[in-house]
Specification:
This protein is of the alpha+beta class. The chain has a single domain, classed as P-loop containing nucleotide triphosphate hydrolases (Rossmann fold, 3-Layer(aba) Sandwich). It is built from 6 helices and 4 strands. The strands form 2 sheets. A two-stranded antiparallel ribbon has the order 1-2. Strands 3-4 form a two-stranded parallel ribbon. A hairpin with a 4-residue loop joins β1 and β2. α5 packs across α6. It starts with 7 loop residues before the first helix and ends with a strand. The relative contact order is 0.15. The model has no long low-confidence stretch (mean pLDDT 95). This is P-loop containing nucleoside triphosphate hydrolase protein. InterPro entries: P-loop_NTPase (IPR027417). It comes from Coemansia reversa (strain ATCC 12441 / NRRL 1564).
C-alpha cells in the first residue's frame, strides 16, 4: 500500500491548492487522505479482473520518502497476493470497496501498545524519519496514533485477528 502514497510534491501542491500550509500537511503524511486511494482500489480491481496478465505496481523507497513506479511485478503464476496496510479495513469511500475485492481482511493487533510504540519509534529513528527517539515518539503522538484511532473507529470487522 505504501507505493500508493501521494508523492511529497503532490501533497505540497494539494496543500497549496486547498490553502493549507504544506509543512503541516507533510507532518500528517501517512494519514488515509495522503494516499492515492482511488488508484489503489482501481489497481486491486484490475488485479482481480485480469489474473492472467502481468501487472506492475509501485513500491515505496523509505530512503527517498516517495513511491517508486512499477517496482513490484505480479505475474499470472502469483495466485496469492498479500496487501498490507491499516487502511485496507476502512469503511469510508473509496477504501470501503476493498472489502468487496479481497477474500479476507486480517487485522494484526499488538499485544502491548507500549511495546508497539517503542518498536515504531525505533523504526522511525532508524529510517531517518526523526532526529531522535524523543522526536520519533512525538511523531507517533501527533501522527501515527491519530491515524490508528481513526482506523479503529472507522473500520470493518476483520475476517481474522492475529495478536502479535
Amino acid at each position: 500500500m505504501d507505493g500508493f502514497h501521494f508523492t511529497k510534491a503532490q501533497l505540497r501542491q494539494q496543500a497549496t491548492i486547498k490553502g493549507m500550509q504544506p509543512d503541516k500537511v507533510m507532518l500528517r503524511r501517512g494519514a488515509h487522505w495522503t494516499f492515492d486511494s482511488t488508484n489503489f482500489v482501481n489497481t486491486i480491481r484490475i488485479l482481480q479482473s485480469k489474473p492472467d496478465s502481468t501487472h506492475h505496481l509501485p513500491s515505496f523507497d523509505h530512503a527517498v520518502g516517495d513511491p517508486v513506479a512499477d517496482d513490484i511485478t505480479i505475474r499470472p503464476h502469483h495466485h496469492i497476493v498479500l496487501l498490507e496496510g491499516i487502511y485496507l479495513h476502512l469503511s469510508i469511500s473509496p477504501w470501503n470497496e476493498i472489502k468487496l475485492l479481497v477474500d479476507e481482511l486480517w487485522w494484526v493487533e499488538p499485544r502491548s501498545k507500549v511495546t508497539s510504540s517503542n518498536r515504531l519509534a525505533k523504526r522511525h529513528f532508524n529510517a531517518g524519519l526523526s532526529d531522535s527517539i524523543a522526536a520519533a515518539e512525538q511523531r507517533i503522538i501527533n501522527n501515527d496514533l491519530p491515524n490508528s484511532t481513526f482506523t479503529e473507529e472507522n473500520r470493518f470487522p476483520p475476517s481474522r485477528t492475529i495478536f502479535n
